[in-house]
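Lecture 7, part 2: worked example. A protein chain together with adenosine-5'-triphosphate.
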Amino acid sequence: MSKLPWGNSKVLTDEEFFNREQEINNLKNLLSSTGENNAPDILLTGIRGVGKTVLLNRIKNIMDDDYLVIYMDFTISSVYQKNQMSVKGLLDYYFQEIISECRDKGLKSLDSQIKKFFKTNNFKLEKFLNINGIPIPLISTERDIEKYRDFVFKLAEDIYKENQDKIKGIIIIIDEFQVIKEIGDYLNSFLWNFRGYVTSQRNVAYVLSGSMSLQDNLISEIAGQNGAFGGRMLTININPFTKETANTYLKEKAPELNFTEEGFDRFYKCTSGIPSYINIFARQLDTSTTLNEEEVINAFDNNLSLILSHLINEWNRLTIKEKDIIITLIHEPLKRIEIARKLNVKSGSLSNKLNKLQNLGLIKFIDGKYEINEHLLKRWLKLEHEQKGIYPYRVI
Ligand SMILES: Nc1ncnc2c1ncn2[C@@H]1O[C@H](COP(=O)(O)OP(=O)(O)OP(=O)(O)O)[C@@H](O)[C@H]1O
Ligand SMILES: [Mg+2]
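Predicted complex, written out as structure tokens:
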């Protein structure tokens, strides 16, 4: 029986979680300095589906005994879900997550200080957003948001001070951090402020992560020499499984699969060693025969929309114009002016759309030209066109 996890699991069991020993040791060692008043700030990067989220959840499990570890996922915040991204909404989410984790762990969650803070500032409380009894203030003026921000970003440190007899420090993990890009002027309104608080807290470690392609500007805006955290932020990149790792993985977790040598080479090429693709694809393969190269290719093409479901969801959320841009890039990289000519629009009108597609990691800009970043998306689009004679603008 296959012991492979589903391709979209966010938390894996000990049995399902494979390898990553080096990354885990590295992160564990770095984070342990939090207990010596020297909390690190870490940026964990890696392409879609490589295993950042499952690794972070594992780290939470490992560090949970000695530390208060708070795992946040910015895409779960209600402001993101409702498509109303704002600094205030993210602060609410941040605040709630800290307090609920604190309560779950049986630590003092500063309830009376919090009440007093709201009262002194005359903050009214939101009646309907009172999640698990955690009060959420109604705030509208810029000045009050600043006070609230100050309070929320300092909260972890205050909680540590109150509980230092029970924990060695606090670790705040923020996954899907890239969604801050949906806040207007995110650098000034969020990132630089956040950094101001984060870097001065010696007992609170921060681990930021999310789907960011290596070309993403956000990475240099956070961790580059001139970025918000300057040289202080340690960057760790998670790589896909090597061919050897993928081979050992399947032998151990899916011994029912058999490949010829070329068959396995092709399996590895198709999945690029990305664990989520490996898991989804391997579950679809025929276990009653030894798979050769051709059979692997056929199975891959037949299951492509399943393997890429994550990416296809993203494709579905694009506007028709954004999809048009990607389609112009299917056969070759193009300059902006060339894309504009093909689409019969003004070159200037493409800036926002190209930025958005770059932010999503779907296209990249190299040597003056735009190209599709996800080669499997390109393969899927081509196949759909071949089979149906039309590009899949609407996928049901
Ligand atoms: N160490 C691992 N062992 C086994 N399977 C793994 C491992 N890492 C990742 N996977 C598989 O890959 C899937 C995707 O992992 P995960 O969600 O952590 O990726 P991600 O890097 O966070 O992707 P995204 O950028 O889209 O958020 C998991 O659901 C699991 O099936
Ligand atoms: Mg993730």
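The pocket of magnesium ion (ligand 2) is lined by residues 52-53, 175 (CB under 6 Å). The longest helix spans residues 142-163. Keep this in mind for problem set question 3.
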